[in-house]
Design a protein that fits this description.
Layout: E1 14-17, H1 19-27, H2 30-45, E2 53-56, E3 62-68, E4 71-78, E5 83-91
Parallel strand pairs: 1-5
Antiparallel strand pairs: 2-3, 3-4, 4-5
């Protein structure tokens, strides 16, 4: 059972993966999967770090792109719900 957050207690953001991001992760060897998921978890703990670049999607939403640990992680932050939506992941060549 999860305990309710006390007033004033800060709830951390959490990483959520799109279907395409999850499919990409599953194609990786287990060690690389773990490294990538750990990286995304760290990103969720610090969602407002400066990304490497930003691209607007078809709906006009700004998608942040962070290059780290041999990957480019595309994501957007949903502040009210405290989510970091990982929309795409690619390996850096």
């Amino acid at each position: 059972m999860r305990r309710a957050s006390a007033p004033g207690e800060r709830k951390e953001h959490r990483a959520v993966y799109s279907e395409s991001a999850a499919e990409f992760i599953l194609t990786l060897p287990k060690r690389r999967q773990r490294k990538l998921v750990d990286t995304c978890t760290r990103l969720a703990r610090h969602p407002f770090i400066t990304s490497d670049y930003v691209v607007k999607d078809a709906s006009g939403r700004e998608i942040e792109h962070l290059m780290v640990d041999g990957f480019v992680i595309a994501y957007w932050v949903d502040v009210p719900v405290k989510l970091v939506m990982i929309v795409e992941v690619d390996e850096v060549e």
